[in-house]
What does this fold into?
Amino acid sequence: MTQQQVINNIPPGYLNLMGYVDESQVNGPGSRAVVWVQGCKRECAGCFNTASWSFETNELISVAEVAEKILANPGNTGVTFSGGEPFWQAEALAELAQTVKKAGLNVMSFSGFTLEELQGDKAPPQAAKLLKELDILIDGPYVESLAINSPESPVSSRNQKVRIFNPEFEDKITWSSDLVEVHILKNGSRIVTGYKGQLNFC
Ligand code: SF4
It folds into this structure.
């Protein structure tokens, strides 16, 4: 099956998720729910989420259910989309963004596409719809030869850019892509996230 056929197999109103975490402090400003989507065909050397590359179904979950999960935790003041490539599931993420924004949360996304590509003719379907909902976009692929390892930097490689669409966030670009965070879940399993956008289960 091609990547497009796999994406087309996701029912409308659903996301193919790679992972989820509440109250992350290292994936954007403030305390955030992070939604990692499954599927990325970029294959950047040095990618920290190679398990996200496959477009096969990992976890199908409705947008309504993800929104409910995010809003059930008052510790989430914003939401970050990561991956995988969020813009291959742009329509469902735009719907999710609309729902959480109505509840007062802000929304940010990472993308391996540049902003220019997302605004161009070859952008993934509904990219404009998702762009319209974002307060912040971190765009551009991870380029290992341009890697930054600094507690001062919100991006992982020098080519990536922080696009602030909502001026309220001009002075809130304070997180670092160089930090690691460990979440211990109720079932005892752990999620390690933060460093260069990674998501690891252990
Ligand atoms: S670094 Fe990001 S854009 Fe690159 S392969 Fe990994 S998930 Fe895809």
Observations:
- The beta strands are 14-24, 32-37, 59-62, 78-82, 106-111, 136-139, 161-164, 181-184, 190-193, 199-201.
